[in-house]
Write a structure and sequence with these properties.
Chain B: This is Serine/threonine-protein phosphatase 2A 55 kDa regulatory subunit B. The structure holds two protein chains of two kinds. Chain A has helices spanning 10-23, 37-41, 44-64, 70-87, 105-135, 207-212, 216-234. By secondary structure, chain A is an all-alpha fold. Chain A has a domain at 48-86. In chain A, helix 3 runs parallel beside helix 5 (105-135). Chain A is globular, with a radius of gyration of 22 Å. Chain B is mainly beta. Helix content of chain B is 6%, strand content 37%. A four-stranded antiparallel beta sheet of chain B has the order 1-32-31-30. Chain B has a four-stranded antiparallel beta sheet with strand order 2-3-4-5, with no helix packed on it. Chain B is globular, with a radius of gyration of 24 Å. The two termini of chain B are 30 Å apart. The chains are: A mainly alpha, B mainly beta. The interface between A and B is large, with 62 and 56 residues.
Chain lengths: 247, 501
């Protein structure tokens, strides 16, 4: 880089670094290095949120399998938690309602779909245990935690993922409703899709407001999950449904 | 060797012992080789293919087997997904080698007998028996398909003339008996030679039927079916050293079975949380200790290994030992947990060590030291900077297996681009070899491969970006006493042998 003690202009420096990057292996974790000039230019949240998006997609895909691979699911969810934790470093502090520093509908959608994810994830895992209850006697509970050893700080359960804006850590207020006024919500006003039924876990504490906002991604996901649950619990339609895509 | 019409359908193959039909040039590779020491020099003994492909082609056209092998081997479109080999296992003597595939089939190969006339054929494996172990099923309660893919095969030690093995898919374990029949009774009184009944009035004398030799027939019969004990997907089975019990492990539970009892099993490990929302860890592999019938280990998706003693309690939720290496803070990333997930755990033959495989390394642990492994081997560390891409294409979730050699001095595991790696624990030397038909000529010694990680690429090296991540070696096996290895690459089974003096 700065060889022979020569001072170089910033543009030259950046050009050199780009060339070096092309020669050497592409380092995918560059966003973790805050000294990197590219990071200084772009907010870290952008890179983390793209990984977040990817993980959310993977989770969706995994949940949509006829029988999700539990290992894959657990690893993706744990990775998603890590990413979210890194994007919200001040989660422990009480949320301060203020304008988000990096506004964008994408962040809002992410946050609201995250609530739906946690709800659907929770409901699916709950559903797996319900189904097992039909065919097997309940297993004796272990005295210690599921890992067989005392757990100091238990990781937050899925159901309690707080609805925080990933970029800023602020709670999203109900002002989002205004964004969706144009969307036809008559389809989702039917009682059949009332979230209080079928033992669905409620979302985060302020999630009730979110469930009213008919965000398309969220309700589409809910449709699928509720549909699945309905079919399983009713049972009669089980044979009529074509099997989902194989693993 | 031309396939006769009666031999065309693969289901008939269990009734015939077939000669070698493997080598593309029609002649088996000789075992002698010229040079090489250190890690040893490896040569290709034979490359074996799933029988269906050959039989399907011969049904359409009468082609010599050699031509079949030559023509369609280069054309990937003939290989169907059902033929992808999903498990490989030698039996306890190394005489038999079993493979299971995604189509639920088991193919057993037998080692060619040594003879003075054909010394060069020693070490070659030929098809011995083929049978359909598992069929696809439909679970009506959950409205789910159950894959017929064979996840694992484990042999039982031989106690009589017959061979026994366990094979499992996601839900059901089966015990198969493979036996030979080379004699048949002849000279019945009431039946003639074609089996037609004779009129008793025409019988004037009685005779005792005698056993006469017949063409060897190998038949496989299912002796036990162990079903309905696993809610989640079975990832491991392990035969206990008492030879009376075995265990099957799924994502959250491990069950202990008695071979004679199929309608019940004992649950010995259960890590399912009361509230499924709290699920953060799953069981990835499990194995019994080779000598102590009360001891077993299981690994997790968080990179931990637990050793349990069944004498301590009926439900082994409390471990006796807990093996975990502290995370290296300099290597911490979003993918730390995924790459620490253990995909395979194997006891050494001595029972003193366990070996674990995670995404980038193989680790050897001493049973007496829980806080860190005694040896760590980098399988393909050049992938560490590619984790994001590998996460994107799901390769980061690939489950590689690992194996010990007979003397526990060398360990082997697979990688991408049809590469596999061997590590000599004593000399600390390692080698990368490739299992591919382009590079495997008969009589040639396998050339060590090298991956270039930046800077100038030498002529023989391959750069990281050129690696083919669709060609992965997940399953390998090592002969229990000799330096013969079996490497599964998609639908091909390669058998390599060390040099023979």
């Amino acid at each position: 880089m700065l060889s022979k003690g020569l001072k170089r202009k910033r543009e030259e420096e950046e050009e050199e670094e780009e060339e070096e990057e092309k020669e050497a292996l592409a380092v995918d974790t560059w966003w973790l290095d805050s000294d990197h000039p590219a990071v200084a230019q772009a907010p870290p949240a952008v890179a983390s949120s793209s990984l977040f998006d990817l993980s959310v997609l993977k989770l969706h895909h995994s949940l949509r399998q006829s029988e999700p691979d539990l290992r894959h699911l657990v690893l993706v969810v744990n990775t998603l938690r890590r990413i979210q934790a890194s994007m919200v470093p001040t989660a422990a502090l009480p949320p301060v309602p203020s304008l988000p520093a990096a506004p964008g509908m994408a962040d809002s959608l992410l946050a609201s779909s995250d609530a739906a994810l946690s709800a659907s994830m929770a409901s699916l895992l709950e559903d797996l245990s319900h189904i097992e209850g039909l065919s097997q006697a309940p297993q004796p509970l272990a005295e210690e935690g599921p890992q067989g050893r005392p757990i100091g700080g238990a990781p937050p359960s899925l159901g309690s993922l707080d609805l925080l804006d990933p970029a800023t850590g602020c709670l999203l207020d109900d002002g989002l409703e205004g964004l969706f006024e144009d969307i036809d919500t008559s389809m989702y006003d039917s009682e059949l899709w009332a979230p209080a039924s079928e033992g669905l876990k409620p979302g985060p504490e302020d999630g009730s407001g979110k469930e009213d906002t008919p965000e398309l991604k969220e309700t589409e996901l809910k449709d699928t999950e509720l549909d699945y649950l309905m079919d399983v619990l009713v049972g009669t339609q089980a044979l009529e449904r074509p099997p989902g895509p194989g693993r | 060797m031309v396939l006769q019409p009666s031999e065309r359908h693969y289901r008939d193959w269990s009734h015939r012992r077939l000669g070698p039909w493997c080598s593309p040039t029609g002649s088996p590779a000789p075992l002698s080789c010229e040079t090489g020491c250190g890690e040893g020099s490896w040569i290709l003994v034979c490359r074996l293919l799933v029988p269906t492909q050959v039989s399907l082609l011969s049904m359409e056209e009468d082609i010599d087997t050699r031509k079949i092998n030559n023509s369609f081997l280069r054309d990937h479109s003939y290989a169907t997904e059902a033929d992808i080999i999903s498990t490989v296992e030698f039996n306890h003597t190394g005489e038999l080698l079993a493979t299971g595939d995604k189509g639920g089939r088991v193919v057993i190969f037998q080692r060619e007998q040594e003879s003075k006339n054909q010394v060069h054929r020693r070490g070659e494996y030929n098809v011995y028996s083929t049978f359909q172990s598992h069929e696809p099923e439909f679970d009506y309660l959950k409205s789910l398909e159950i894959e017929e893919k064979i996840n694992k095969i484990r042999w039982l030690p031989q106690q009589n003339a017959a061979y026994f093995l366990l094979s499992t898919n996601d839900k059901t374990v089966k015990l198969w008996k493979v036996s030979e029949r080379d004699k048949r009774p002849e000279g019945y009184n009431l039946k003639d030679e074609e089996g037609r009944l004779r009129d008793p009035a025409t019988i004037t004398t009685l005779r005792v039927p005698v056993l006469r030799p017949m063409d060897l027939m190998v038949e496989a019969t299912p002796r036990r079916v162990f079903a309905n004990a696993h809610t989640y997907h079975i990832n491991s089975i392990s035969v206990n050293s008492d030879y009376e019990t075995y265990m099957s492990a799924d994502d959250l539970r491990i069950n202990l079975w008695n071979f004679e009892i199929t309608n019940q099993s004992f649950n010995i490990v259960d890590i399912k949380p009361a509230n499924m929302e709290e699920l953060t860890e799953v069981i990835t592999a499990a194995e019994f200790h080779p000598h102590h019938c009360n001891t077993f280990v299981y690994s997790s998706s968080k990179g931990t290994i637990r050793l349990c003693d069944m004498r301590a309690s009926a439900l082994c939720d409390r471990h006796t030992k807990f093996f975990e290496e502290p995370e290296d803070p300099s290597n911490r990333s979003f993918f730390s947990e995924i790459i620490s997930s253990i995909s395979d755990v194997k006891f050494s033959h001595s029972g003193r060590y366990i070996m674990t495989r995670d995404y980038l390394t193989v680790k050897v642990w001493d049973l007496n030291m829980e806080n860190r492994p005694i040896e760590t081997y980098q399988v393909h560390d050049y992938l560490r900077s590619k984790l994001c891409s590998l996460y994107e294409n799901d390769c980061i979730f690939d489950k590689f297996e690992c194996v010990w050699n007979g003397s526990d001095s060398v360990i082997m595991t697979g990688s991408y681009n049809n590469f596999f790696r061997m590590f000599d624990r004593n000399t600390k030397r390692d080698v990368t070899l490739e299992a591919s038909r382009e590079n495997s000529k008969p009589r040639a010694i396998l050339k060590p491969r090298k991956v270039c990680v930046g800077g100038k690429r030498r002529k023989d090296e391959i750069s990281v970006d050129s690696l083919d991540f669709s060609k992965k070696i997940l399953h390998t096996a090592w002969h229990p006493s000799e330096n013969i290895i079996a490497v599964a690459a998609t639908n091909n089974l390669y058998i390599f042998q060390d040099k023979v003096n």
